[in-house]
Every structure is written in C-alpha cells, then in structure tokens.
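Propose amino acids for all 333 sites.
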C-alpha cells in the first residue's frame, strides 16, 4: 500500500515523503531505504503511538515551517488528485482541507456536513444511518497550513479529528474536497480483498496478467480477471478465477480450484484442493484435497495437512500446523 501511495504522490511531482512510524519501523526502513522510485524517504520514529495528529507535530523538524503540508493516513489506498485538491484549498484560503469520499454505508466513519461553499461545519463520528448528515466521510488525506499544524499539541497522543478540526470548523477555516475516484480503507479482510480486486480489474481489463517466468499449464483454465505473479506455477487442470491473485513463486497444484481469493508469495497449494473467497498468506503450505471456505484467512507460514476442511470465517494465525478440520468460525491462535 505504501508503495502504491508513494508512486501516486510521485506522479504529482512530490519528491519527498516522511513516514511517521512506530510499528515495524525497522522493516519499513529496510524495505524502502532512503529513496524509493526517485522519492526521498525520511523516517520520523515515534517513541510511542501518537494517534492521528501527534505524528504530524512530532515530525515538524522534517518539513518547513512555512510549507503547506500534505498528510495522509497510512492505512488507506486512494488515488486522489492532489493538484485539484490543492486548488480548492488555495481558492478557499483554508487553514485545512480534508478529502471527502462518498460511501454507501457511512456508519463506520466520521461523516461531514458541508455548507454551500464546501466549508465543513461538523463531523459526526460513526453515526447511525438515520443520523448521518451526508454520506461524505473523512478520506484520511489533509492539506494543512502551518497555522493548523501549530494547533496540534506536542508531546502526547492527539486525535486530530477531535482536537483540532472542530475548532477550525467553528471558525469557518476547514474545507472539504470531494474525491470521487478510487478509495479504500483497508480496515477488515473484506475491504482488503475488495481493494485488491478493484485494482486487479482496473489493471487486467478482462485479461490475465502473467508475470515473467511464470509456468502456466496448457490445461489450466483461467476466468479473468486473474493475476499470476513472477515465477509462479499453475499445474495441469487447475482452475483460477474469476478475481484471483497468485503471488510470486507460488504454486497451484493440479486440478485445484481457486476463486475470489488472494494467494501470497511463496505459498504452495496441493492437488485437488478448493479455495473460495479466502486469503492465503506468504509461505503457507496447503496439502492435497484441502477445502478453504469464504472469508477465511490463512496467515504466514501455516501448514495445512491433506484433506483438512477449513470452514467459513476461520482466522489461522502464523506458524500453526493444522492436522484436523476446523468447522466453526473463529481464531486459531
């Protein structure tokens, strides 16, 4: 997700990004280094989690005190037109502008009430459907002037949506930019799958994407859209699709069926197995004759023995060895 976000920002001429990090900070630094695809990467290492606003204040030393700051939540994927958003921000002489996105169900989010001039008058957090002032939610992308950044308390956890934005709204200096394109909050496994499949459909456009060095049997059947990663193997009689992503170096055994699922890098799925609506993590081993049902998640380095049946909505945590069927939903820890 961060790779996609950085590439998207780069397309608008942004050449420097600050990653405000705590969890998995070393892994992120190891992956991205000091530059990614021509974008300079800085790391603001938080001593403790600081919420949605605290990291912006904590990282102040890394950006100019006179610059407009673009801040984004790290757990969203969005293709927001940054140039258009900035034009709205500047034309309104806003102290802060929030990207807003219309959703069918706003009850999981902060919902905005706008006036005719696109000022945000209030946010209602996770309203009942009947109480929602609109279906426009906070899309997790902000343009902030230095005066807005100055209002973020330093040295502690700050939820910017509760401690900073309401005051700006009361002053009429908080505006909304409505983004109608691609946007996903990857807050649960259904969101994760839907985001992947939307991107797959956008890129595949009704065809199969087959990575370099992949081995695809002539008797394998693909129902597009399908993506098969580099050096992956799909054996005789396997059926993939629709909406299947197979990672790099993964192997799908003969006569195995995979539908509406994501199989991560280096996973191995045996013969005569069935995976429907699931996520299979990296380096997972799935035996022969295994059934994995809709909504289940198999975490990294799990081993599932032959003929095991994994029912709907089962979450198997990493490094587990599964020898017997799991017929009830829940977590295997």
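Proposal:
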């Amino acid at each position: 997700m961060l790779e996609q976000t950085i590439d998207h920002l780069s397309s608008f001429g942004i050449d420097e990004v600050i990653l405000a990090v705590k969890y998995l900070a070393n892994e992120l630094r190891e992956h991205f280094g000091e530059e990614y695809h021509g974008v300079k990467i800085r790391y603001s290492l938080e001593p403790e989690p600081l919420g949605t606003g605290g990291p912006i204040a904590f990282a102040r030393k890394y950006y100019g005190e006179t610059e407009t700051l673009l801040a984004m939540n790290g757990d969203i994927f969005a293709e927001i037109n940054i140039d258009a958003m900035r034009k709205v921000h500047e034309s309104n002489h806003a102290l802060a502008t929030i990207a807003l996105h219309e959703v069918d169900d706003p009850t999981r989010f902060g919902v905005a009430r706008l006036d005719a001039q696109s000022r945000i008058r209030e946010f209602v957090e996770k309203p009942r459907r009947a109480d929602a002032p609109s279906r426009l939610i906070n899309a997790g992308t902000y343009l902030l002037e230095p005066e807005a950044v100055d209002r973020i308390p330093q040295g502690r956890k700050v939820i910017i949506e509760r401690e900073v934005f309401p005051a700006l709204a009361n002053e009429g200096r908080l505006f909304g930019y409505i983004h109608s394109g691609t946007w996903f909050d990857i807050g649960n496994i259904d969101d994760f799958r839907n985001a992947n499949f939307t991107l797959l459909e956008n890129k595949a456009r009704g065809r199969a994407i087959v990575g370099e060095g992949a081995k695809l049997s002539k008797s394998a059947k693909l129902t597009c859209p399908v993506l098969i990663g580099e050096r992956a193997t799909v054996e005789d009689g396997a059926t993939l699709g629709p909406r299947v992503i197979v990672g790099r170096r993964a192997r799908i055994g003969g006569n195995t069926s995979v539908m509406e699922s994501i199989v991560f890098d280096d996973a191995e799925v045996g013969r005569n197995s069935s995976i429907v609506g699931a996520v299979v993590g990296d380096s997972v081993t799935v035996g022969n004759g295994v059934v994995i049902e809709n909504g289940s998640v198999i975490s990294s380095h799990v081993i599932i023995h032959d003929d095991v049946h994994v029912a709907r909505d089962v979450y198997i945590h990493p490094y587990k060895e599964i020898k017997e069927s799991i017929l009830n939903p829940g977590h295997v820890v």
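The chain has two domains: 50-187, 190-332. The chain has eight helices and 32 strands.
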